[in-house]
Every structure is written in structure tokens, then in C-alpha cells.
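WARN retry 2 of 3 for item q-0093 after timeout on previous attempt; input resubmitted unchanged.
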Amino acid sequence: ELTERRTVQDWVVRPMLRLTGTVGELAVGRLDAEVPGKARGDEIGGLALAVLMGLPGDIGPVLNGGCRLIL
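OK item q-0093 returned
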């Protein structure tokens, strides 16, 4: 049970907290904030890419490194 809890914290909770913090930074105009998790191939990675694609102008695609979000 402890191992399962640690796995959930490591793979879900902590990445979501980091992504939440980044979204807060972007919301106040810090467009140079690093968006964590964008290279992940799971739902958290998809959410990170969606955050990048929502940035204004040409900032999103540049930070995204040319990756495309496929829905």
C-alpha cells in the first residue's frame, strides 16, 4: 500500500502540482515559465501540451518545440 501511494504521488500528484504552479505563473504573465511534463506520453503530458498551445501568439509553438497536440 505504501508503494502504491508513493507511486501515485510520484507519477500523478507531484507532476500535477508542478503543472498547477506553472499555470499560475503563466496566468500572471510570466511567459518564460518552463512547462513541466510536456514530454510525457500520458494524460499529464497532454495537459502540459494543451497549456502550451493556449499561450498567446507564437509563444506556445516555440516553447512546445514543434510538438503537436493530438486529440
